[in-house]
């Protein structure tokens, strides 16, 4: 069993990882960098559509924990680029469904390859075996932490 001190250190490192991820997602969208036509902020939309299939804008916004207006703008840019298509939802013609195009799937593949190359370059001093141990440890950690209840928001007293 680990000590509460070690658990506190782990929480601090996890907070840093989340902050790093958040900073990457919130960077200005501008022009996509690298060889792919996808900005990292748009990649989340493509990943969800690739993994979960066609869905409404509201579901995308909820899954990505972003305001619907932000998702709407991202989808508009992706649609203009031919990476996604929208169509009326047959269950509710007021709503729209968004789907990944073949071009979108290819752009996502390119984006993932480019990101893997960037991470590999950043970790060039490490050995594959060491990183594989880290990956296995992180997967186990995620499994263990999935049993921890979500933190409760406290109501201020007074």
UniProtKB/TrEMBL annotation:
InterPro entries cross-referenced by the UniProt entry: HTH-type_Bedaq_tolerance, HTH_MarR-typ, Tscrpt_reg_MarR-type_CS, WH-like_DNA-bd_sf, WH_DNA-bd_sf
GO MF terms, alphabetically ordered: DNA binding; DNA-binding transcription factor activity
Domain HTH marR-type: 10-143
Swiss-Prot/TrEMBL keywords: DNA-binding, Transcription, Transcription regulation
Listed Gene3D superfamilies: Winged helix-like DNA-binding domain superfamily/Winged helix DNA-binding domain
SUPFAM superfamilies documented for this protein: Winged helix' DNA-binding domain (SSF46785)
Transcription regulation among keywords: yes
Signal sequence segment: none
PANTHER family (alphabetical): CONSERVED PROTEIN, HTH-TYPE TRANSCRIPTIONAL REGULATOR RV0880
The protein's name: Transcriptional regulator, MarR family
Organism: Pseudonocardia oroxyli
